[in-house]
Write a structure and sequence with these properties.
CATH architecture: Clam
CATH class: Mainly Beta
Structural class: mainly beta
Strand order of the largest sheet: 7-8-9-10-11-1-2-3-4-5-6-12
CATH topology: outer membrane lipoprotein receptor (LolB), chain A
Number of helices: 4
Length: about 220
Amino acid sequence: MSIQRMMVALKQLSWVCVVSVLASSLAFAEGDETAVVHLSRLLKPLTTYQADFEQTLLSAQGQTLQNVKGQMKAKRPGQFYWHTEPPLEQTVVTDGQRVWIHDPDLEQVTIQDLAQQLSATPALLLSGEVGRIEEAYDVSYANPQPGQPVRPDFMLKPKGTESLFQWLTLHFVEDTLYAMSLVDTLGQKTLLRFDNPKKNPELSDALFQFTPPPGADVIEQTAQ
């Protein structure tokens, strides 16, 4: 499995995806605070995050192509766990340096280096460096209405030319991310809804390590 396929799998999370967040008791934007400053202020206090999710993939014509459920966990810096339930089961785990991709149906585990290009994906929002958001994205408020208070909804458009998506939106309820949507370069739309989100739960580093199950075909694609 290529690093590009892994990125697509993470994106089909969401990656948000991966990709969700935030801190408690934060006020909404006031005055001339920019969208990127507001978003960074919401994300910065987050050190860990976990949630159940439901992900729906729509065609460019709006037809449902795929619907999956699963669980995700993230921990700064760079640690990420993503599991989709059967019948499209897959587990993606990274410790910030290596990535394990387990496809039970194929009885296969692929191990790769965490490519630098992954920093341009929504995973950056969950487990990367918040200060780099402005480097990777143009951030604005989604569908602002004249004369109305600014809602905590954000639109992010990648600045790079090699991104897998055209734009993504983040929907907040108060200070917690509850939904994400993104449109890929083919015009397909991925909708992610987060249920039972928990901000800053205690997550062991052991959650972001992966041991291939007995009998699995292990494909090593790291530099070492």
